[in-house]
Amino acid sequence: MSLSRKDVEKMAHLARLQITEQEIEYYREGLSRILGVIDQMNEVDTRTTAPLFHPNEEALRLREDRPDGAIDRDRMQQIAPQAQDGLYLVPKVIE
Description:
By secondary structure, the chain is mostly helical. The chain is built from 3 helices and 2 strands. 42% of the residues lie in helices and 4% in strands.
């Protein structure tokens, strides 16, 4: 599929973009190539192809969900910018 100059100008207007004369031709060619690839993909018969939920159908290797040690809160609060009574103090961002 090939886009016309007017098609590109209309898309730029709808997207509220200001493009130069050189950019109009550049985008016309690029977008036409993209639409050409989409046309090729639409020609492929996929009626006998089962849909995939994910491109990698293999099961992911997951680790066992188990605790692997406690967090040393006192040590973590020593390196925090501000902490008090076991809580982390952060600057107020909402009035």
